[in-house]
Design a protein that fits this description.
The protein has seven helices and six strands, in the order ααααβαββααβββ. The longest helix has 9 residues, at about 60-65. The chain has a six-stranded antiparallel beta sheet with strand order 1-2-3-6-5-4. By secondary structure, it is of the alpha+beta class. The protein starts with 5 loop residues before the first helix and ends with a strand. The protein has helices at about 5-10, 15-25, 45-55, 60-65, 85-90, 130-135, 140-150; strands spanning about 70-80, 95-105, 115-120, 155-165, 175-185, 190-195. Strand 2 and strand 3 (about 115-120) form a beta hairpin. The protein has a single domain (about 20-195), classed as Chorismate lyase-like (Chorismate lyase), CATH 3.40.1410.10. About 25% of the residues lie in helices and about 30% in strands.
Length: about 200
């Protein structure tokens, strides 16, 4: 086994290599919604890169980075008809019904707004009573999935920069980092989640 040198230890891919290294984790980057802008990942803060690429719980990552508990505060939740693009990623018929939950992830101490997220859930593919269980976990959907004991995996779809969703208006109209992923259980998508990082 060859000993690593200081020159190779600190080496980082540059330019297009860095972009390719990062985007290979997103299976549908080429299919991202129109209006999402390219993000030069090499210029992002490492914390933002970690948030975009994590396939674990965002609230846990935020708690570790900010050293405060994270609370998922519901903005709205209701049964809705899914649009065609959403139906595709959920693997359901167009105009099927899903449970939509919109939340703001805030610091439980600072009240700082870190993320706004929208989840579309397919209740028939989740354990009975799962929808009601979400509200029992302050940090949100990920904690509820973990506590339910169902085996699931996250599939990162795409990321980019775009305006904050119109259901959570911000006064300055700035662009934010966004990503989408789906949660797969039993070989079927059970949730499509879009997150905007502030």
């Amino acid at each position: 086994m060859r000993e690593a040198t200081g020159a190779t230890l600190g080496a980082r891919p540059a330019g297009d290599d860095a972009e390719a290294l990062f985007t290979r984790h997103f299976v549908a980057q080429a299919s991202r919604p129109l209006g999402l802008l390219d993000v030069p990942v090499g210029s992002l803060h490492p914390g933002h890169r970690c948030l975009l690429a994590t396939d674990g719980m965002v609230s846990t990552t935020l708690e570790a980075y900010n050293l405060e508990p994270i609370a998922a505060r519901p903005v709205s939740q209701a049964d809705v008809r899914v649009r065609a693009a959403e139906a595709h990623w959920l693997g359901v018929a167009s105009a099927a019904t899903a449970f939509r939950r919109r939340v703001a992830l805030r610091g439980a101490v600072s009240d700082a707004l870190y993320v706004v997220a929208e989840s579309l859930l397919v209740p028939s593919r989740l354990p009975a009573g799962f929808g009601g269980a979400i509200d029992r976990f302050a940090s949100g959907l990920g904690a509820a999935l973990l506590a339910s004991g169902i085996e699931s995996r996250r599939e990162l779809l795409w990321f980019g920069a775009g305006p904050i969703p119109d259901w959570y208006p911000m006064p300055d109209g700035r662009h934010v980092l966004q990503r989408a992923y789906r949660v797969v259980h039993g070989g079927e998508p059970v949730a499509l989640i879009t997150e905007s990082f502030l």
